[in-house]
Amino acid sequence: IDLGQLRTTLLAAKAWPIALGVASVAIGFVLRSWRWHLMLRHFSQKVQFRHSAAIFVSSFALNNTLPLRAGDLARTFMYAKELDTPPATLAATLLIERLLDAATLLLIFFLGLWFMPAEKIPPIWMGYIHHAGEIFSVLAVLGVAVLVLLPKLAPPLLLRIERSQSRSPRVEKIKQLLLQFARALGLLSAPGLVIQLVVLSLLAWGLEGGIFWAASLSLSIDLPSYAHLFALATATLATLLPGPPGNLGTFDYFAVLGLSVYGANRTDAASLALLAHLLVWLPVTLVGGILILRRQGKNALQQIHQLEEEHP
Question: Coil, helix or strand for 189?
């Protein structure tokens, strides 16, 4: 990467596309917050959207600044009483949320392999790309089958767990948590709700791809239209790898790889990745940080550390 050119490109960024990128972030997080709210409302009609949305954004601000997914820990335990929902149920909603995100990003990724410019694909890779598409199709069918069969398979399993007895209070507590978690997964038995969750996932991640598009407009980098979504998929899937808070490094490196295979040179790709990462990270961290200070005050970090000790 030419660091001098990188600096020149970033300093020449236009402001108005950045505003578009911030709008994409905002609308995307509204949709993702609403998706989580729909899951919560399945268990408690008392939950208000403004509360669940504030908690959702706050948890991402914590994930962006603290290690070990502290925001997920806070969303599961710190806000359970406020949401009037057991922690095990909240953990189940986070699992479903992650599965929806992973499925959507994998779909975007594999479509990106098919749309990749032919001249950028070494001939030896073509077979692997086609096989990857076939494998994903099989996995998609299996995933749908699991979603259909899970609500039917869960009740006998729940009954068996309920009938099991133990004299150990610890084992009994674990059993109750497992029951709460399994019952929460029962929301997948509502077809209308599942369709809403899937549609919201597709729309939200489509808007996240708009962040890369806005960054490329700002930096005057011309790329094929699908390159932005493919870079989003490679960058976001890479955040599953262990990394520092805010995914600094993992997000950017794999975004550069995704943009490079669509024709961007390394310096332009790095400029675009850094600007897109800033757009993804900064607004959510600022808004979420303000919400945490308003709700938890200066003792927020102390509460998080206490949760990490109680739930290692």
Answer: helix
- Residue 203: Cβ within 10 Å count: 16
- pLDDT averaged per 10 residues, the chain (length 312): 92 95 96 96 88 94 84 86 85 87 87 76 68 70 67 63 63 63 72 89 95 96 92 92 85 94 92 96 94 76 65 56
Pure H helices in the chain = 3-11, 15-41, 49-65, 70-73, 80-83, 87-115, 123-163, 169-184, 191-219, 227-238, 250-260, 266-296, 300-310
Distance CA 59, CA 268 (A): 32
DSSP 121: S
Tell me the DSSP string of 194-263: HHHHHHHHHHHHHHHHHHHHHHHHHHT----TTHHHHHHHHHHHHTTS---GGGTTHHHHHHHHHHHTTT
| pTM of this structure | 0.84
